[in-house]
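Batch manifest, entry 17 of 40.
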Amino acid sequence: MWSALVQRAVMIGFMAALITVPFATHAQAANPHVSEAVEHARGAAKETDAKAVVKHAEEALKHAQAAQKDMKNPHLDEGVNKLKEAVEHGKAGHADVAAKAADSAAMHLSEVK
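Output type: structure tokens
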């Protein structure tokens, strides 16, 4: 009797997981601007040349700001702030600081749900 109850509970838990997992990445899938912003921010974070950081960060910023028009999210807002920092520091020639800001932006943007 107990094994039948345990099997039923496990099956219900498994089915619940199958139903909810596809929705876990819904925001990024539903808003391609978020995904693009993450990819460009990651690209900026990998650069060692200030001009290259700026190029990627500006592209990421464009997508992140477009996403802000469609949704409200504190991680999205912080990602935009960090991208602005990345552009500012990159234009000042501070490639390492700009890349760190872009990395922080990528982390925040990847948390947008």
